[in-house]
Amino acid sequence: MSKxxxxxxxxxxxxACFYCHFFKRRHxxxxxxxxxxxxxxxxLLRRDPALEVxxxxxxxxxxxxxxxxxxxxxxxAAAKHFGLASRAEVTLEANPEDLSPPLLKELRSAGIxxxxxxxxxxxxxxxxFLRRTHDATQAIQSLTLARxxxxxxxxxxxxxxxxxxxxxxxxxxxxxxxxLAPAHVSVYILENVPRPAADERxxxxxxxxxxxxxxxxxxxxxxxxxxxxxxxxxxxxxxWRMEP
Length: 244
Ligand code: SF4
Prior knowledge:
This protein is globular. Helix 2 runs parallel beside helix 3. It is an alpha/beta fold. The chain has one domain: TIM Barrel, CATH 3.20.20. It is about 40% helix and about 25% strand. The strands form two sheets. An eight-stranded mixed sheet has the order 1-4-5-6-7-8-10-9, sandwiched between helices. Strands 2-3 form a two-stranded parallel ribbon. Iron/sulfur cluster binds near residues 16 and 20.
């Protein structure tokens, strides 16, 4: 049986972030319901009993706006139309402000075993620049709550290249990473926002981030991605290996 990864896109957000170029629409119950029904229809169209899905990635948009029932139904459809491996890596991208203890508990029972948390930064100035709807305390708290809920495979997204960032604020961010001890960190460079001398500055911040993560024991396994040994995103690797 061939193995495959399944990416489930959820293109709905509470509001549009000015720097984001992903396709998205405002989160409203009616279009979300229609969209989820069509996703299941899409799985039926692509049904292949010879394929076994061993990684699932709920990305967005803001898939942490899904409830556990909606996630379970998508996973049931994947299991029905393809077969879902018993030890599949099942990731959900989450905004920190969505991760309450009850939701975390529900996500785990729905089958999510990996969280990718869009912290972006642990510095208030950076989060204000990005006009995020969470603050630094929520970013830290969401990761602590996820761990307390039993998640062991947690990734943190950070954005670099913000005008508010300095070498010192970056150091503070990586001290927070050291304290929170995620299994995986993704470091993305800010795009779509013109900034003076951006290339040189972004390169400097990127190499500072890279060195800080190597010093913390992370492996640099892909352009933007760093992991603890053995904790590379199995789903992410499929793209680089051109797997189904
Ligand atoms: S929440 Fe994420 S996907 Fe949605 S607009 Fe903001 S950055 Fe883009």
